[in-house]
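Two entries, shown back to back:
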Amino acid sequence: MSQSIIAKRYADALFQLGKEKSKLEQFESELQILRDVYRSNKEINTFLKHPRFSIEQKKKLVGDSFQSFSVEIVNTLKLIVERHREDIIVDMIDDYIEMLNDAKGIANADVYSVRELSEAEKQRISETFAPKVGKQSLNLTNIVDPSILGGLRLRVGNRIFDGSVSGKLRRIERQLVSANNR
């Protein structure tokens, strides 16, 4: 079974548990902290994967390191360690956050622009495009890309809204080429 399917299953189980216990937001904030720790501290991953340390030592490290977290999160981590699936932790967290955002009507989107956008501009873009993709709001990641020349390009999932100058020039070029071929 692929790692991504396994990560989704753990994320789904945590999501259902969070819903039952009304802890969805608490789980999200704890998982975001865990993701930051896991990405910034490579030694924890090395320790958790090392064959010389027993499962009990690894579970103790998880319990001691994340004792301020909810019992459900700590037990999930211990279960992941017990089953030697340390590689799925970041994917599981990403899947959980995606499920939570989907439940809230929020989508992640990349907006490409020539310069860094202000918060007000991001808010207007979110308000304009969220209804077009059937969401209540968008979490925007601004990517500065001078090659678009001007305007914006927005990517939400597999949908792209291209209002960039370079995109318009490409469309004009295609029209001219197709008109010459007739």
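entry 2 starts here
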Amino acid sequence: MANAPDRFELFLLGEGQQKVTTREDTRTPNTLYFVIEKEDHTIGNLIRMHLVKHPEVVFAAYRVPHPLVPNVELRVQTTGKITPKEAVQQVIQDLLHQLSTLGQNITREFELKRMAMEDGR
């Protein structure tokens, strides 16, 4: 495609580019916009799904502004007991823990299957 960026531009940050930037929503209290560079619907929807389950989050949504620009805009509003930044940090910590546990479980199952195959020789 003539307008498509080079593949490496879809996942490598540019010189001085930050992974996440924020800006305040001045129209709505306790609301921040997070722009996550070099990501797509996968991370946007994953974070949003967990944010809406958080008891202090009033609203969470994401969008990908343009299909050829690899970034996600996440909008988060909280009750005010915690900040949107704290809610996102808590959710990401929880997701990292879940992914770590999943990785350990997959590794354990793989090792069990490998040992069973070796015993069956």
